[in-house]
Amino acid sequence: MKVEKLLAELNRLRADLDKDPTDPEWFTLHHAFCFISYQIGPFQAYLDEAIKPEDETPDF
Fold this sequence. Notes:
Blueprint: H1 3-15, H2 24-38, H3 40-50
């Protein structure tokens, strides 16, 4: 699984919410998106180890 797919989904979820730093859901999605964006290499390595091709869902 490519990290870009997960980043795109996190960004979509984040964009669906009003930008409100006091909202725990927006706050969590925003900072997860930012952190993964800055640590894309290590996160891709994690995905390669944790998710095998047969575990990927076809529509994701």
